[in-house]
Protein 1
Amino acid sequence: MTIGSKAPALDVEHWVQNGNGKFKPVTKFENGKVYVVEFWATWCGPCIASMPHLAETQKQYAEKGVQLVSISDEDLETVEGFLKRELAEAGEGEGEKKEDAPKTYRDLTSAYCLTTDPDGSSQKDYMEAAKQNGIPTAFIVGKSGEIEWIGHPMEMDEPLKSVVEDKWDRAAYIADFKAKQEAQAQMQKLFALLNRGKMDEATKMLDELIEKTKDAQSKTQFQMIKLQVMLQDESKKEEVAAFAKTVLDSAAEDPMMINQLCWAFVQMTEQGQIDNPELLKTALTATAAASEKAEAESKGAILDTLAHLYQLTGDLDKAIETQKKAVASAGEEMKAELEEFLKKLEEEKAGK
C-alpha cells in the first residue's frame, strides 16, 4: 500500500472515544469526507505527546467533514487504564483556558475517535502494508477514499489543510515519499554493515548518503548514525563536537530527536564510554533550546536530560533547579524516577 492506494476498510474492535457522541464507528470511508487514521500505543511517549495536537486538529476540522480515528493494538483494559491517568500538567489541551483544560487523558482525547484493535488487523492492513515501522504514524484518507499522505501526526497540518481545501498536490508528494522510502532501504543496508563490524564501508556509505539525500529528516538520521560511529573512534574526538553541532542544528525544530541524541551522550558519558566536555556543552545548549519548544508531555523528559547535562558539566545549582522543573512537568509514570535523581543531586550538593 502506498500513496494513491485505496484505503482499506476499518475493522476496529473497540471504539473507546467517539468525539463526545459526534462520530459513529467507521467501517467504510464515505466519499467527500476526509479521514485521519493514526496508530498509537499507551507506552509510546511521542504518541502521547501528539494527543493535544490531535484533539485540537479534530476540533478545528470537525465541521469540515474530517474524522480522526486513532488506533492502538493493545487490550481494552490497558487503554482504559491509561485514559484514567491524570495529565502531566493542567492546560495541556492546545488553545484551552486553564479552567477548561482537560484533567485526564480521557478528557484530552474525548474530541476524537480513540480506539483499540487487539487482534492487530488494522495494524496489518495499514502499518505493515505500507511498510511503516514506527509510531505514531498517521494516514490521511482523502475525499475519494484513497491514501493521500503518510507520516508523523505532528507534521500533517499542511497536508491535511490542502486535502480538505482540494489543493493537495499528490504527484509532488509521491516524489517526496519515494525519496523517504529509498532512504529507509539504504538505512537497512547501512545497519547490516554496522552489525557486521564493517566500519570503514559504513562510514563511506554514510558520507555518500549525507551528501546525496534530499529529504531533511532522513539526512538528519544519517548524520546521527555517523555521529554515533564517530563516538566509537578515539581518533575522531576533536571532530565530534563540531559535527554534533551540525546534527543538532539540523534537528533544531524536533525537540524529541534532540532529546534522544543528547540523552545518548549523557548515558555514554556516565558509563565511561566517552569523555568529551565540548560535546556535553554543545548538547547542553541544544537541549536547553529544545526544552523551550517541547510539548507539555515531553517537557519533563527533556528537562531531565538537561539537568543531567548541567550535572556532568559541573553546574549543580542549575542541575537542581532544572530537575525541580522536570519533576513538576512530569506525568505520574515518570515522577518517581525524576524525584530520585533530584534527591541524588541535592545529596551531591550537600556533600553527602
Protein 2
Amino acid sequence: MNEVWNLEPIYKGFDDPAFARDYEALKALVEKLKTFSGELEGMEPLAGLTRGIALSEELTDLVNKLAEYASLRQSADTRDQEAGSQMGRIMALYSDTAAPLAVFSQWASSLENLQELVAGDENLRDYAYYFENVKKSSRYLLPGMGEEIMARMELSGGSAWADLHSYITSTLPVKYRDKTINLSAVRNLAYDDDAQVRKDAYEAELAAYPAIRDSAAFALNSIKMETISDCKLRGYTSPLDRTLENSHMEKKTLTAMLEAMDEYLPKFWQYLKAKGKALGHENGLPWYDLFAPMGKASTKFTTEDARDYLVKLFSGFDQELADMVAKAFDEAWIDFYPRDGKVGGAFCAGVECLGESRILTNFDGLFTDVVTLAHELGHAFHNQCIRSHRPLNHDYSMPVAETASTFNECVVMAAAIAGAKDKQEQLALIESQLQDATQIICDIYSRYRFETMVFANREQDFMHADTLCGFMEEAQKASYGDGLDPKYLHPYMWVCKGHYYGPTFYNFPYAFGGLFARGLYAQYQQEGEAFVPKYKKLLYTTTVASVEDTAKVAGIDLGDKNFWRSALQTIADQIDLFCQLIGE
C-alpha cells in the first residue's frame, strides 16, 4: 500500500503540459469574464444569466483543479517552493475575476423577476438556491473595483499571513529528550502509554513555541484586523455575523447549541476530575494527560489493518461507503505518516476533477489514528454524495461540513465498544470517545471564547503573545472549569491550531457537527437500514439548502434546545458509564 497520496491523476507535475494548458485556459477565461461583465447591461436577462452561469462553472472547474493540486503539494511539503510559487500565480490570476463576478452578482440581484426566470428555465433551475444566496449576499458586495482590490490585497494580506503560520509551525524543531523532532511528532506523544513521556512531550512542546510566538502573534493580529476591516466595509455587524451568513445558519441555532453546551459543561468537568483522580492527580487533570489512554486497548494498527477494519465495519452500515473506503486505500488517496515539512493534523480535500478526494493524516498506528481516518473518510463520502450536483453547488457550509465525518466516528466507536472483549477494553474505548467529545465541547467552546476575545480587542489593540496566551488560559479555565489543573494548561493553543488563522469564526462548526451527527446516529439506532437513504439525502441536500432546512430532511428543528440537549445527554450517559467503570 502506498504511504503517500497519488496526485498524478490531476497533473504529473508543474511541468505537465496539461497544467500549462489549464493555466492558459484560465487566463483566457478571465478575459472572457471581463468582456462579459462589460456587456451585461445590454443583455436580455435570461441570456445573461445563462452565459454567466456557464462562465462561472468553467471558472470553478479550472480554478479548483489548478489550485487543489498546488495546495496538496504544498500541504505535503511546506518547503516545496514551486508549489508556493504556482499557488501564488493561480490565486493572483483568480483575483482578477472578483470584479466581473461581482458585476454579474449585482446585475442578477437587480432583476425583479430573478426567481421566476430561474424557476422557469431548465438550465438554471438547479441553481435556485445559489441565486437566492447571490441576491442575499449582494448587499455585502463592494462597489466599483472594490471586490478586485480586496481580492488582490488579500493575497499579500491574510492569505500570506496564514501561509507564514503554516510554514513556521510545520518546520518548527522541537527538542524532545535527546533528539529533535517536529511539532506533529511531539504532539502525537500526548497519546503515549508512558506518563513521563506525555509530560516530557508537553513540556518540550511548550518550550518550542517561544521561537515562533511573535511571528504567530503578528500573523493572527493581521488576519483578524483584516477581517474586522472587511466586515465594516461590507456592512456586516460583526465577524460572527459574517460567519453565520456564509454558513447559511441562523443565530438562534448557534444560541440554542451554545446554551445547551453551557448547561452540560459541569458534566464534562466531572469526567475530567474523575480521570485525573484515576491517574493520581489531586487538583484536576493536567493538560498533558487529556489524551492519556486508560484501560487496555493497546492494539497497534498498520495502514493495511486500518483498511481492513474500516471496510468491514462500514459494510455493515452501507456498501457504497465501504466501497469508497476501500478505493481510498487501494488507489492512493491518502498521505499517511508525519514527516518534516508536512503540515500537522489531518484533512480531506475534494478533488472535483476526478470525482475523488485526497486525505492527509499523521498516522501513528493508534486506534485514535484509525478513528481519524474514519473521520476524514466521512468527509470524502460527503464529497461523493454531492458529486452529482453541478459545479456551483459543490460547496457545503462549515457547520454541516463535520456531519458525515463525525457520524463515521460514531459508527466506529459504537461497534468497537460493543465488541469489547472485557471491562478494560471497554474502558479504553469509552474513554477515547470521551476524549473526542471533550474536544468538541470544552475545547471548541474555549476556542469560541478565545476568538470572541480576540475580535473584541483587536480593533483597539495589537495583542502581543503574552496577551494572547492570557486570553487562551482564560478561555480554557472558563470552558474546562475545575476539570483541569490550572497549573498545567496550554497557553499556546492559539499558535498550534491553524484554524485560528482564517477570516472567520472557524471553530464552533466542530461542536455543531459533533452534536448534529450524534443526533443523527441516535436516529439510525432507532430506524436501522431505513435511515441510510435519508442520511444520504441529507448529505446531498447540504449544498442546496440552509443548515436549518437540511436538518428538516431528518425531521430536526435546530432552534429547539432540546435537540442539542438530547445529543449532549448521549455523552453524559457515557460519562456515567466511565465513572462506573473506574469506580467513581
Protein 3
Amino acid sequence: MDAVTYPDEAVITFINRNMIPLRIPSDQQPLAGEYGVAWTPALLILDREGHTHQATVGFFSPEEFIPSLLLGIGNMYFHKDDFTKALNRYAEILADHADSDAAPEALFQTGVARYKSSGDPKPLKEAYEQLQKEFPESTWTKRAYPYRLIR
C-alpha cells in the first residue's frame, strides 16, 4: 500500500481531513498484540477511547480504500448510536462509491441504522429489496434475507 494507495492524493486528503493516522508495525508490542495485528497491512478504525469499530487486513486500491475508511467511520458512529452521522457516511459511500466493495455493507447498515433510530422495521425490508436488486450475490444480501418477511 506504500507504493500505490498511501501516496494517492485523494487518499492523503481524505485521511488528513477525517482521521488521525497511526502506523504500528506488526511486531511492535504491546500495541500490535493489544489490537490483534498479526499481518499487514492491517487497518483499524478506532474511536477516541481506543475501541475498535472496524478491522481489515490486506491491500486496498485507492478506489477501495476511501470507501472502506468511510464504512469504518460510519460503523464507529453506528456503534455509538449516533445514527445521523452513521447514515451520512453510509450515504456518502452509496452516492460517491456505489461500485465499491463497501457499498453492499453500507446499504445493509443503512437499513439497520434507520430501523434502530426509528423503531420502524420497514427500512430493513427496503434495504433487503435494494440489496437484492443491486447486489444479488453479496453476503450482505444473504444476511438481510430474513428481512424480506417484514410486513
Protein 4
Amino acid sequence: MTGGRLFVFIYTLCQWICYFFYLNVMWLFCSLLGGIIFGIGPSTVAVYAIARKTKLGEEDFPLFRTFWNVYKAEFIKANALFLMLLAIGFVVYFNINYFRLFDDMFHMGMQVFSTIIALMFIFIALYIFPVYVHYDLEFKKYIQYASALSILHLGQTALMILSAVSVYYFFISFPGFIPLFAVSFIIHLNVWLAFRTIEKVESKGEQLKEVDYVKIGQQI
C-alpha cells in the first residue's frame, strides 16, 4: 500500500513537473516569436488562461492549442495591457529614484507619494491578469476591479506579496530553475492565490461599490 502511494506521488509529481516545463517552453518560444516586447504580453495571458482552467478543475483540454488560440485572440489587447503596465512601472521606478536624489521637504514628500503609488501598482499587478482571464470587461475596468480586490482583501494581498517574495528568492538562489519553471510556476501560484479572493467574492455575492458594474461575461 505504501509502495503504491509512493508511486502515485512520484507519478503525479512528474506530471506537474512536465506540465510546468512545457508551459514555460511555450511561453519562452512565443515571447521570442513576438519579438520579446510584443510577445511577452500575449504569452503571459495564454499561460494565465491555462492556469485558470487548471484552477477551476478543467483537465481534458489540449495545452498547445489552448495556448496558441489565446495567444492569437488576445495578441493586441494583451500587448496593450502589458505595455501599459510596463510604462507605468517604469515611470514609478524612475520617480522614486529621481526624488531620492534630493533631501528637501518637497522632494521627500514626492518620494513618499511615489512609494504609495508604487505599492498600489504592485497591488494591481497581483490581480490584473487573473481578473483579465476570468472576466470580460471594458479595458479600464480590469484595473478598477483589480484595485478593489487588492484593497478590500488586504490580508490575501499581503499573502500574495509574501509568496511572491519567497518565490523570487528561491529562483535567485537556484537560477538554473528559472528557464525551466519560473514563469509557469509563478503564474499558477498567482492564479491560485488570486482566485481565493475572486471565488470568495463570487460565492458570497459581495457588492463592491467600486466595481458594482462588473459582470461576468465570456470567459477565455
